[in-house]
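Why do we care about 3D structure at all? Because function follows from shape, and shape follows, mostly, from sequence. That is the central idea of this module. The next example makes it concrete: a single protein chain, its amino acid sequence, and then its structure expressed as C-alpha coordinates.
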Amino acid sequence: MLARMYVVGIDENGLGPLLGPLVVTGAILELDGEYEPAALAAALAGGVRVDDSKAFMSHANPAAGERTALAFLDQLEEGRPPSADTLLQRLALPSPVSDRSCPAAARPLCHGPDLNLPCFGAQGDDAAAQAALAAASTELEGRLAAAGVRFVGAMCVTLCARDFNRLVEVRGGKMALDLALFEQVILAAHERLARREALYLCGKIGSRKAYCKVLSLLKRFPGRTLAEEAARSAYRAEGLGQVEFVRDGDALHPPTALASVIGKYVRELAMVRINRFLGEHLANSRPASGYRDPVTRALIERSAALRRELRIPEECFCRIR
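And the structure:
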Protein backbone atom coordinates (compact mmCIF):
# COMPACT_ATOMS: atom_id res chain seq x y z
CA MET A 1 0.00 0.00 0.00
CA LEU A 2 1.31 3.43 -0.93
CA ALA A 3 2.07 5.80 1.92
CA ARG A 4 -0.31 8.73 2.12
CA MET A 5 1.08 12.25 2.27
CA TYR A 6 -0.62 15.53 3.06
CA VAL A 7 0.48 18.77 1.43
CA VAL A 8 -0.95 22.16 2.41
CA GLY A 9 -0.44 25.16 0.15
CA ILE A 10 -0.75 28.57 1.83
CA ASP A 11 -0.69 32.01 0.24
CA GLU A 12 -2.01 35.52 0.72
CA ASN A 13 -3.96 37.83 -1.53
CA GLY A 14 -4.37 41.54 -0.96
CA LEU A 15 -1.52 42.51 1.37
CA GLY A 16 -0.73 45.71 -0.52
CA PRO A 17 -4.04 47.23 -1.77
CA LEU A 18 -5.82 50.36 -0.61
CA LEU A 19 -9.30 48.80 -0.58
CA GLY A 20 -10.77 45.39 0.09
CA PRO A 21 -9.78 42.51 2.34
CA LEU A 22 -6.55 40.71 3.04
CA VAL A 23 -7.12 36.98 2.50
CA VAL A 24 -4.77 34.21 3.65
CA THR A 25 -5.80 30.82 2.31
CA GLY A 26 -4.83 27.20 2.82
CA ALA A 27 -5.57 24.35 0.39
CA ILE A 28 -5.07 20.74 1.52
CA LEU A 29 -4.24 17.84 -0.80
CA GLU A 30 -3.85 14.17 0.13
CA LEU A 31 -1.47 12.24 -2.14
CA ASP A 32 -0.64 8.62 -2.88
CA GLY A 33 3.10 8.54 -2.31
CA GLU A 34 5.60 11.36 -2.28
CA TYR A 35 4.98 14.90 -3.41
CA GLU A 36 6.57 15.77 -6.76
CA PRO A 37 5.55 19.29 -7.84
CA ALA A 38 6.27 18.83 -11.56
CA ALA A 39 4.41 15.52 -11.70
CA LEU A 40 1.43 16.94 -9.84
CA ALA A 41 1.34 20.01 -12.10
CA ALA A 42 1.37 17.76 -15.18
CA ALA A 43 -1.36 15.53 -13.75
CA LEU A 44 -3.61 18.51 -13.08
CA ALA A 45 -3.03 20.24 -16.43
CA GLY A 46 -6.38 20.44 -18.21
CA GLY A 47 -9.52 22.52 -18.41
CA VAL A 48 -9.14 23.60 -14.79
CA ARG A 49 -5.97 25.66 -14.46
CA VAL A 50 -3.85 25.38 -11.32
CA ASP A 51 -1.16 28.03 -11.60
CA ASP A 52 0.02 31.31 -10.13
CA SER A 53 -3.21 33.32 -9.92
CA LYS A 54 -1.40 36.40 -11.25
CA ALA A 55 -0.66 34.50 -14.47
CA PHE A 56 -4.26 33.93 -15.54
CA MET A 57 -6.65 35.64 -13.13
CA SER A 58 -7.01 39.41 -13.05
CA HIS A 59 -9.54 41.87 -11.65
CA ALA A 60 -10.68 42.48 -15.23
CA ASN A 61 -10.98 38.76 -16.01
CA PRO A 62 -11.45 36.51 -12.96
CA ALA A 63 -13.62 33.90 -14.71
CA ALA A 64 -10.87 31.28 -15.21
CA GLY A 65 -9.90 31.46 -11.55
CA GLU A 66 -13.53 31.16 -10.54
CA ARG A 67 -13.82 27.99 -12.64
CA THR A 68 -10.78 26.50 -10.89
CA ALA A 69 -11.96 27.42 -7.39
CA LEU A 70 -15.50 26.13 -7.89
CA ALA A 71 -14.37 22.92 -9.63
CA PHE A 72 -12.14 22.05 -6.66
CA LEU A 73 -14.77 22.95 -4.10
CA ASP A 74 -17.22 20.73 -5.99
CA GLN A 75 -14.99 17.75 -5.08
CA LEU A 76 -15.95 18.09 -1.43
CA GLU A 77 -18.88 16.29 0.18
CA GLU A 78 -21.01 19.45 0.43
CA GLY A 79 -20.49 20.20 -3.26
CA ARG A 80 -20.06 23.47 -5.08
CA PRO A 81 -21.26 26.50 -3.07
CA PRO A 82 -24.26 28.18 -4.77
CA SER A 83 -23.54 31.65 -3.43
CA ALA A 84 -20.77 33.88 -2.09
CA ASP A 85 -22.18 33.79 1.45
CA THR A 86 -22.20 29.98 1.41
CA LEU A 87 -18.64 29.96 0.11
CA LEU A 88 -17.44 32.22 2.91
CA GLN A 89 -19.32 30.29 5.57
CA ARG A 90 -17.58 27.08 4.50
CA LEU A 91 -14.08 28.54 4.21
CA ALA A 92 -13.94 31.16 6.96
CA LEU A 93 -11.63 30.80 9.93
CA PRO A 94 -12.23 33.03 12.97
CA SER A 95 -10.92 36.56 12.70
CA PRO A 96 -8.08 37.33 15.12
CA VAL A 97 -9.87 40.60 15.96
CA SER A 98 -11.71 40.21 19.25
CA ASP A 99 -14.27 42.97 18.56
CA ARG A 100 -16.22 41.78 15.51
CA SER A 101 -19.03 44.32 15.78
CA CYS A 102 -19.44 46.00 12.41
CA PRO A 103 -20.72 49.62 12.29
CA ALA A 104 -24.21 49.59 10.80
CA ALA A 105 -23.35 52.28 8.25
CA ALA A 106 -20.45 50.22 6.93
CA ARG A 107 -22.20 46.86 6.65
CA PRO A 108 -23.38 47.34 3.04
CA LEU A 109 -19.74 47.59 1.94
CA CYS A 110 -18.93 44.03 2.96
CA HIS A 111 -22.34 42.47 3.61
CA GLY A 112 -24.48 43.59 0.70
CA PRO A 113 -26.88 41.34 -1.23
CA ASP A 114 -25.62 37.78 -1.71
CA LEU A 115 -24.00 36.84 -5.03
CA ASN A 116 -25.05 33.78 -7.01
CA LEU A 117 -22.14 31.66 -8.23
CA PRO A 118 -20.68 31.65 -10.77
CA CYS A 119 -20.46 35.42 -10.52
CA PHE A 120 -18.14 36.29 -13.40
CA GLY A 121 -18.82 35.89 -17.10
CA ALA A 122 -22.05 33.90 -17.40
CA GLN A 123 -24.22 34.32 -14.33
CA GLY A 124 -25.07 31.71 -11.74
CA ASP A 125 -28.59 31.06 -13.01
CA ASP A 126 -27.39 30.58 -16.59
CA ALA A 127 -27.88 26.93 -17.61
CA ALA A 128 -24.86 27.02 -19.92
CA ALA A 129 -22.66 28.36 -17.11
CA GLN A 130 -23.80 25.63 -14.75
CA ALA A 131 -23.22 22.95 -17.40
CA ALA A 132 -19.71 24.25 -18.11
CA LEU A 133 -18.84 24.18 -14.42
CA ALA A 134 -20.22 20.66 -14.06
CA ALA A 135 -18.07 19.51 -16.99
CA ALA A 136 -14.96 21.16 -15.51
CA SER A 137 -15.65 19.51 -12.16
CA THR A 138 -16.09 16.08 -13.76
CA GLU A 139 -12.84 16.41 -15.70
CA LEU A 140 -10.99 17.50 -12.56
CA GLU A 141 -12.44 14.57 -10.62
CA GLY A 142 -11.01 12.19 -13.22
CA ARG A 143 -7.59 13.84 -13.18
CA LEU A 144 -7.39 13.78 -9.39
CA ALA A 145 -8.37 10.10 -9.26
CA ALA A 146 -5.86 9.13 -11.95
CA ALA A 147 -3.09 10.98 -10.12
CA GLY A 148 -3.97 9.52 -6.72
CA VAL A 149 -4.84 12.93 -5.32
CA ARG A 150 -7.72 13.94 -3.06
CA PHE A 151 -8.72 17.52 -2.38
CA VAL A 152 -9.32 17.59 1.38
CA GLY A 153 -10.54 21.17 1.64
CA ALA A 154 -9.67 24.83 1.93
CA MET A 155 -9.88 27.53 4.58
CA CYS A 156 -9.12 31.22 4.79
CA VAL A 157 -8.78 34.13 7.16
CA THR A 158 -10.31 37.28 5.71
CA LEU A 159 -9.56 40.68 7.21
CA CYS A 160 -11.71 43.61 6.12
CA ALA A 161 -10.13 47.08 6.05
CA ARG A 162 -11.23 47.76 9.65
CA ASP A 163 -9.76 44.52 11.00
CA PHE A 164 -6.59 45.05 8.96
CA ASN A 165 -6.16 48.60 10.25
CA ARG A 166 -6.61 47.52 13.84
CA LEU A 167 -4.23 44.56 13.65
CA VAL A 168 -1.45 46.02 11.52
CA GLU A 169 -0.42 48.41 14.29
CA VAL A 170 -0.71 45.81 17.06
CA ARG A 171 1.30 43.22 15.11
CA GLY A 172 4.05 45.66 14.18
CA GLY A 173 3.47 46.00 10.45
CA LYS A 174 2.04 44.22 7.43
CA MET A 175 4.67 41.48 7.19
CA ALA A 176 4.30 40.49 10.85
CA LEU A 177 0.51 40.46 10.48
CA ASP A 178 0.75 38.34 7.35
CA LEU A 179 2.98 35.81 9.12
CA ALA A 180 0.56 35.59 12.06
CA LEU A 181 -2.28 34.76 9.66
CA PHE A 182 -0.13 32.15 7.90
CA GLU A 183 0.44 30.51 11.28
CA GLN A 184 -3.30 30.58 12.03
CA VAL A 185 -4.01 28.75 8.77
CA ILE A 186 -1.21 26.22 9.42
CA LEU A 187 -2.63 25.38 12.84
CA ALA A 188 -6.19 25.16 11.49
CA ALA A 189 -5.04 22.77 8.76
CA HIS A 190 -3.21 20.71 11.37
CA GLU A 191 -6.48 20.31 13.28
CA ARG A 192 -8.40 19.55 10.06
CA LEU A 193 -5.94 16.71 9.44
CA ALA A 194 -6.54 15.28 12.92
CA ARG A 195 -3.03 16.46 13.88
CA ARG A 196 -1.28 14.34 11.29
CA GLU A 197 2.03 15.65 10.02
CA ALA A 198 2.04 17.45 6.66
CA LEU A 199 4.20 19.44 4.30
CA TYR A 200 3.23 23.12 4.49
CA LEU A 201 4.26 25.14 1.42
CA CYS A 202 3.88 28.87 1.99
CA GLY A 203 4.61 31.79 -0.27
CA LYS A 204 7.55 33.89 0.91
CA ILE A 205 6.59 36.91 3.01
CA GLY A 206 8.50 39.82 1.53
CA SER A 207 12.23 39.15 1.19
CA ARG A 208 12.65 37.54 4.62
CA LYS A 209 15.12 34.64 4.72
CA ALA A 210 15.05 33.69 8.42
CA TYR A 211 11.75 32.71 10.04
CA CYS A 212 12.97 30.58 12.95
CA LYS A 213 12.96 33.47 15.44
CA VAL A 214 9.56 34.83 14.41
CA LEU A 215 7.57 31.61 13.95
CA SER A 216 5.70 31.17 17.21
CA LEU A 217 4.55 27.69 16.23
CA LEU A 218 8.17 26.47 16.51
CA LYS A 219 7.83 27.01 20.26
CA ARG A 220 4.81 24.72 20.34
CA PHE A 221 6.33 22.20 17.92
CA PRO A 222 10.09 22.09 18.63
CA GLY A 223 12.17 21.52 15.56
CA ARG A 224 15.18 22.56 13.55
CA THR A 225 16.12 24.73 10.61
CA LEU A 226 16.62 22.89 7.32
CA ALA A 227 17.38 25.84 5.03
CA GLU A 228 17.34 29.62 5.14
CA GLU A 229 18.01 31.05 1.71
CA ALA A 230 16.57 33.76 -0.51
CA ALA A 231 14.59 31.20 -2.53
CA ARG A 232 13.54 28.84 0.26
CA SER A 233 13.36 28.74 4.04
CA ALA A 234 12.45 25.36 5.54
CA TYR A 235 11.87 24.08 9.07
CA ARG A 236 11.15 20.69 10.61
CA ALA A 237 8.57 20.90 13.41
CA GLU A 238 8.03 17.68 15.36
CA GLY A 239 4.36 16.67 15.43
CA LEU A 240 3.44 19.28 12.80
CA GLY A 241 5.60 18.34 9.82
CA GLN A 242 7.73 20.47 7.54
CA VAL A 243 7.05 24.18 7.00
CA GLU A 244 8.58 25.91 3.99
CA PHE A 245 8.45 29.50 2.74
CA VAL A 246 9.18 29.53 -0.98
CA ARG A 247 9.82 32.49 -3.24
CA ASP A 248 7.35 32.36 -6.15
CA GLY A 249 5.76 29.41 -4.38
CA ASP A 250 2.49 29.89 -6.25
CA ALA A 251 4.38 29.43 -9.54
CA LEU A 252 6.42 26.42 -8.34
CA HIS A 253 3.99 24.41 -6.21
CA PRO A 254 0.44 23.44 -7.29
CA PRO A 255 -0.95 23.37 -3.70
CA THR A 256 0.26 26.93 -3.11
CA ALA A 257 -1.09 27.98 -6.51
CA LEU A 258 -4.48 26.51 -5.62
CA ALA A 259 -4.52 28.45 -2.34
CA SER A 260 -3.64 31.60 -4.26
CA VAL A 261 -6.47 31.10 -6.76
CA ILE A 262 -9.10 30.40 -4.09
CA GLY A 263 -7.94 33.37 -2.03
CA LYS A 264 -7.97 35.72 -4.99
CA TYR A 265 -11.47 34.53 -5.85
CA VAL A 266 -12.66 35.32 -2.31
CA ARG A 267 -11.09 38.77 -2.55
CA GLU A 268 -12.64 39.49 -5.97
CA LEU A 269 -16.10 38.59 -4.66
CA ALA A 270 -15.56 41.08 -1.83
CA MET A 271 -14.57 43.77 -4.33
CA VAL A 272 -17.75 43.09 -6.33
CA ARG A 273 -19.79 44.00 -3.27
CA ILE A 274 -17.78 47.15 -2.56
CA ASN A 275 -18.00 48.29 -6.18
CA ARG A 276 -21.72 47.55 -6.46
CA PHE A 277 -22.51 49.48 -3.31
CA LEU A 278 -20.57 52.54 -4.45
CA GLY A 279 -21.90 52.21 -8.00
CA GLU A 280 -25.46 52.49 -6.71
CA HIS A 281 -24.66 55.95 -5.35
CA LEU A 282 -22.07 57.31 -7.80
CA ALA A 283 -22.92 57.91 -11.44
CA ASN A 284 -20.49 56.44 -13.98
CA SER A 285 -18.46 54.73 -11.26
CA ARG A 286 -15.77 52.42 -12.67
CA PRO A 287 -15.25 49.16 -10.74
CA ALA A 288 -11.92 49.30 -8.92
CA SER A 289 -9.48 46.50 -8.18
CA GLY A 290 -8.63 48.00 -4.81
CA TYR A 291 -4.92 48.05 -5.65
CA ARG A 292 -2.80 51.19 -5.90
CA ASP A 293 -3.86 52.11 -9.42
CA PRO A 294 -5.48 55.24 -10.90
CA VAL A 295 -9.01 53.77 -10.99
CA THR A 296 -8.87 52.85 -7.31
CA ARG A 297 -7.44 56.21 -6.27
CA ALA A 298 -10.12 58.02 -8.32
CA LEU A 299 -12.87 55.97 -6.66
CA ILE A 300 -11.54 56.85 -3.21
CA GLU A 301 -11.56 60.56 -4.07
CA ARG A 302 -14.98 60.50 -5.78
CA SER A 303 -16.62 58.61 -2.92
CA ALA A 304 -15.23 60.77 -0.09
CA ALA A 305 -18.25 63.07 0.20
CA LEU A 306 -20.67 60.15 -0.14
CA ARG A 307 -18.94 58.22 2.62
CA ARG A 308 -19.09 61.21 4.93
CA GLU A 309 -22.80 61.61 4.15
CA LEU A 310 -23.45 57.92 4.84
CA ARG A 311 -21.29 58.04 7.98
CA ILE A 312 -19.05 55.21 6.83
CA PRO A 313 -15.99 55.20 9.12
CA GLU A 314 -12.76 55.79 7.21
CA GLU A 315 -11.12 52.79 8.87
CA CYS A 316 -13.84 50.56 7.37
CA PHE A 317 -13.07 51.69 3.86
CA CYS A 318 -9.41 52.50 3.26
CA ARG A 319 -6.20 50.86 4.48
CA ILE A 320 -3.89 52.94 6.65
CA ARG A 321 -0.87 51.11 5.16
